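User: Structure tokens for this complex, please. No commentary.
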Amino acid sequence: MAFEINGSSPPDDAEPGGYTYRYILPPPTGLDGTGNAVGAVGTPEVELSYQSLSAAGWAYFVNITGGSPSVDLSSLEAWNPYASSGAGAWETYTTAVMHRPTYERTGWGGYEGVRIRFTGLEA
Amino acid sequence: MATADELARTEAPAFDFQMRFYVSGPRAWVSTANIIAGGAYDPSPSTETTAGVDATSTEIPVDSTAGFTTGAIVIAPTDEYEEYEVISYGSKDADSFNELTRAFGEGLDAGFHHGVHAAGAAVSEWAEITGWVHTLELGLEEADAIATWRAELTGTGYNSRLMAQDNALLGMWRFRPANGDLSLWTDWSVAFIGYIKTADVDDSHKQEKAWRLDVQGVAQYLAASDAPAHHFGQTDLAAGKSVRVSGVLHDPYLERGSGEYVGYPSLEGDNLVDGDLGTVWISDDVPTVTKEQRFANRFVINEVYLQAPPGQPDLQWLELFYKNQDGETEGDLKYYHVVNGGTEFNWVDEKHEFPAPVANYINLDKKGRPMDPDGGFAIICSNRPRFEERWGVGGALHVLDWRDFQIGTWTVNPAGGFLAWFYQNGAVESIVWWGTAVPQKFGARGEFDGYGPGWTGATIPTPPAGHSFRRLNAGQLTSPDSAANFLADEPNPTPGLAGDDNPEWFSVDLGALGIELVAELAIDEVDELQLNATLGLLPAGQVMIDAEVIEYTGRDDDNDLLTGLTRGVGVTDPAVHPVESSVIPYEDGLAVDAHLVRQVRWRRRPVLNGTTYVVPKTFKVFFSVQESPIYPDDNDWDDEWRDHWDEGALISVVDHPAAATEWAGVPPGGTTRARHVLVNIREMSDGGRAKMNEFHVYAATGEVLDGDGEAEGATEAPYSGEVIKYLLVNNFGLDESQITLTDQGIQVGALPTTKARYMQVFKDILRRTGCALYFGLDEAVEHRFSPWYPLRGLPEVDVTWSRSNARRVSVTRPERHNVSQVRLRAMNDQDDLIYEVSYPPRPLAIGSELIIEDMVLGGPTEACLMAEQIFRRKNGPLRATVIPSGPAEWVRPGQRHLITWTVDQEGTLLQGANFVVKRVQFGINLGKATGDAHQRKSWDCTVTLDELIF
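Assistant:
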């Protein structure tokens, strides 16, 4: 299995992994009176951070969101490092929202400082 | 009460929520009665137009109307040239919506693309706007005993058709974990259903069309609408009116041991209509029930009063009764003298013939003072001004001061002696002996034993001071006379009165109706008459204004109107009638400016005389429409009362049971017109003075709620909650099923409400009755006793906040020296009780006195409790703020929460401390992107609570 959006994989040079991929569980928003973390609201998120992304890779992602700031996905295949008691596992989310990619600057043949956010992940 | 699942979610370290938002038409169009906060609801019914629609279309053809229930639809645009349109429909077929009300928006015409929709356009019961909503601030707060809520939504993509003022906005939510499973969602349920109050739009070069909506529940309309004036309950026409009485007990000490009063209060007739069962009217004289037989024995000494009570001015008198057997021959005082043991006579012989006294007697031989041959009284007293101050003239034909007539010295010894009524030509006509007098054979020189002629046997025992001795029947004697003919100790002397001439009475002047035009009535007006009041007018009938009789077919009490007019009835002619023209009921060919009375009622405070409650036993109630009728003290009463009082409406009660301390009666025929109502008390259960605490005269018209808050014309006093329910349902138009009377409130005898904002009327009623009103997150309204004043019970505990289910607790101990004493004045007009209580009994040295008026409570005990509650609530109750760990979406104002959290070194301040929720605020971010900035989804809840003192 590999990272897929709506059943399609990114170009090879845009395949997330290593430094580019982050799976985020909702953080607690506070501690209860005994000091335990509470208030973790919502669903997991996935954030892709590319120091440099090729034009093809950029086009792949932008093509999904189109002109909208976000788009509901029909499926998202993502790596959950918290699954399987920390061993991690690929999971398929049937509900997710992909937000329009942002970048910091253009570079040779691509874009630098690209961030792509996937929220509302639900299996 | 919070469910176990809700409480578990509140403690959960992680949770999630989702919300959806929908818009439909304004409240007037949308039926939302079946949308219940916390309940399931399906906002999804939708269909499509099957043909094009334009601005002039009178029906919307669709695939199917199945599932549409609210009465409004929203048509979505199919392209950039169309727009959303909200439409109200009055009916629907299987495939079309009919009887349309269409609005294109203020200032917009049905031109261009307004109202134009292509075939295939989506038609929904609710238009979903979830994608445009970014944040929600939902706040619920109790203030002045009314809990309301408001929601503030923000987002982007403002749509002026959907987000218009008054449009219904529905919020739905769901949560997880459910049943402890973080992967399980609860069912979608209604979060709130409200109406857009204001809409703000903000835009810049970003062209986000950012908006902010203020959404509130039905309370916003109640705060902006006037409730019509009402007379709920039994309108007491007598309350506070002018009272006339036969007399007022002059010497209260005479009833000092009766238990009627303490101290030296006013015993005036006004006490009858002051709404206070604790005040009393006591007659000066004692009423009699049966007609005393009056004996025709010419002049007879009938009653003697020998000494005033201690502390009262000296006073003595004797009462003479005269009646002639033929009923024609007048007696005259001028032929008589009054003599006693000190009188000196010029004795003629030894046969008790003594033609004239010569000294120490009373000589009435002056001008003529005739007596009524049919029977009458005369008084000869030691001090006429003092006598009249004490008893008045009463029924006596003459009241003479013996100082004006005495020859020589004249003294009457209370310890013993005699008084004789002496004909000037030499004969004793009546004599009475009393006390310790030694037989001296007055007027006899040997022929008589004992006390001499005209008397046999012992003397009459001297009565106690303040009492008299009197004959059992006026004029009754034997020959010779004796003590057996006398009541030796009459505790209630009745100079100048006897038998049926002595009812005690009170009468209330109800005043005129006082109905006037508040708007000029044009000569051709046939729709309505605008009045200042309708109380006293029949549901349909005739009225006279100036010289015109007008017939009407309807009476609108809410708006003070008469409707369906026929002008110039009978021989009268239509005319213009200016403002403030009197409007008088016209019945049976007569204009009668008098109230329509349904019932009269009296109440006695339960007072025992021995084992008997002191209540009227025999009495009559009279009604008069005259402005100035005569009263029973009038000499012409017996002959002329029918000319002044309606004999047909007379209520006569004989042998009213002594166990019943209240009585209510209905005039024969059910109702009667009355300007005055008179009660003649002819006998009290204990044979004593007439006593009465409260008298009510209830109007036949007016709005009366029974215990269910529905029936008009019932006789029961309404509960305060029923009054609020009536206003919400019958006047404002809420569905009856939306009103929950968890507590009916306080029963009030009468509760007039003025024309004012609904919320203002409610606040006043709630403040006076110690109740509270809770507006739900839908159209539901709950009425119950205020949890701040737990007079009738405490709310159940919803939750105990502790370190395991809350993140933070803050406590404020506010300033405590605000009120030095609470003085609370309350009434219970159902039981005619008025009382004032203070807490603490002595004011504190610091703080201000707080006076609270017009409370309606069950009794003094409740009033004391409430005064204490108010005092303690004003003087520094704890206020706490709790941040729950989880969503706590179930928290509502009015709930009772406990806090167990050690915040002090002693560990005592918040250990199971009781609080009531004052306010709860939810700050919700739905996690939408704003431009390219991503917002994290979040949920914050803050609960503000005030200490519950009990």
